[in-house]
Amino acid sequence: MAAIDGLPPLREVIREHELVAKKQLGQNFLLDLNLTAKIARSAGDLTNCDVFEVGPGPGGLTRGLLAEGARRVLAVEKDARCIPALAEIAAHYPGRLEVINGDALDVDVLSHLTPPIKIAANLPYNVGTELLVRWLTPAQWPPVWDSLTLMFQREVAERIVAQPGDNHYGRLAILAQWRTTARIVMSLPPEAFTPAPKVHSAVVHLKALPEPRYPANAKILSEVVAAGFNQRRKMLRASLKGVHPQIETLLEEAGIKPTERAERVTIEAFCRLARIVEAARQN
Ligand code: SAM
Asked: Per DSSP, which regions of the chain are E strands?
């Protein structure tokens, strides 16, 4: 099968640069360039966008993003062994790919990009959720990025898009859906990766809303949701005891039964409660 860009097939790149996958770096590579181009397309039109990619590895998704017309890709890769392979891609797309050898948890590069900015990554499983939470909790909203297109373990993807009453509904669903529209756009079996992981994966696309779906103080909302889900089997009047001494009255004021459990409360109702708690604390 012809490559999408005239560069060597990824199997050859991996062989030539001796990129034996390291488990501790979450290295499960995508070698099918048609698949990586499809993931890149699920990020939407890239032609006028700067894209930030975490963990390019041998460059499968990077090549997809560039072939789909990204104006510029800035990628951060922890594994120094991948840098020469990525340099070959950069040479093929002059001025469009910059690679930093570093840890995405330590380097803050978003400020180096020109809007509109999209983030796309086949995330290392060990750091995926932490990066997502950081991107979803910037100091200011709207964030500098327009959308996130991210590969996760299927179970994490389900936690992001879960609805009240679903098994997976919790803090991550509320954090994500309060200020973005989040959907699963692709599901992938373990065999899509080399080496194959134990679990299925899914790509989630999150588009930033211009403002939160419902008004609420982010800190208080996060506090209320964390307290509610830390003891998810308990009734809210018990799990939220520490939030406010009159929590039972405040829950009723918010239209939430004090005997309800967090897993059945909508984001709208949690936001209403956060506003009522904030007002009550000011009195
Ligand atoms: N994007 C490639 C692909 O789709 O084939 C590789 C994906 S692999 C699941 C995850 C990549 O993230 C690996 O290349 C790994 O070395 C890199 N990585 C792991 N932890 C990282 C971190 N903290 N910062 C940057 N890159 C990291």
From this structure: 29-30, 50-54, 72-77, 97-101, 117-122, 145-153, 180-188, 193-194, 201-208
- Answer whether 0.90 is exceeded by the pTM: yes
* pLDDT at residue 124 in the model: 84
Q: Locate the ligand 1 atom nearest the alpha carbon of residue 151 and give its number.
A: 9
pLDDT < 50 regions, the chain: 1
Same domain, 102 and 233: no
Does the Cβ of 79 fall within 6 Å of ligand 1? yes
Please report the pLDDT score of residue 108 as a whole number: 85
Query: Exposed/middle/buried for 154, CB within 10 Å: 0-12, 13-18, 19+?
Result: middle
Residues 22 and 103 in one domain: yes
CB of 267 within 6 A of ligand 1: the answer is no
